[in-house]
Every structure is written in C-alpha cells, then in structure tokens.
Design goal:
Length: about 100
C-alpha cells in the first residue's frame, strides 16, 4: 500500500501542474496530508522505524529541492515545513507516545 501511495505522491509532486485542480484544498494542507499518509503507511509496512524516518525526511527534502529545479514547479520552504509537520505527527506519536 505504501508503494502505491508513494507512486501517486511522486506523480503529484513532479508532474506538470494543471491550471484547475479538482481538489479544492489549500496547497499547504495537501503537503501536510500527503506526508501524514505516507508516514503512516510507511510505519505500518515495516519495523525499521528509524530508517523509515530517515527515508521519509529525505524524500520530503529532496522533493522540494527537485521542484526548485523543475521549470513549472517551485521549491518552497513553507511546503517543506508542512511536509515535516505531517511526518512529525506520525513519528512523534510513534517515538514519544508508545
């Protein structure tokens, strides 16, 4: 399930944006939600939580860096913050409340 969500998120992050989005949610909330879901699925798919955290943080950072160099995308530190916030909700719960 994680791999399917990962593929969908890669498509959403790196494809050419459409002028009219069919999802009427703010961009920052979508970043938060996408990384929240990815983090949740990643923690459920394996028991390597420290490696998984490193992987998802790296993916969040690299995705914004790659978008910085794509012609029709923008790398944004605020997007990165919301990526990390979504990750932090899941992993904060995992490491501090279990």
């Amino acid at each position: 399930m994680f791999l399917i969500a990962f593929a969908i998120s890669c498509f959403g992050l790196f494809s050419t944006p459409q002028q009219e989005s069919q999802i009427n949610l703010p961009d920052k909330f979508l970043h938060f939600l996408m990384f929240l879901i990815l983090s949740y699925l990643l923690t459920k798919s394996n028991n390597f939580h420290k490696f998984s955290l490193f992987f998802i943080l790296s993916f969040a950072s690299l995705s914004e860096l790659i978008q910085f160099f794509l012609p029709l995308r923008e790398g944004d530190l605020i997007d990165l913050f919301f990526n990390f916030l979504g990750i932090g909700v899941i992993y904060g719960k995992k490491f501090f409340f279990t």
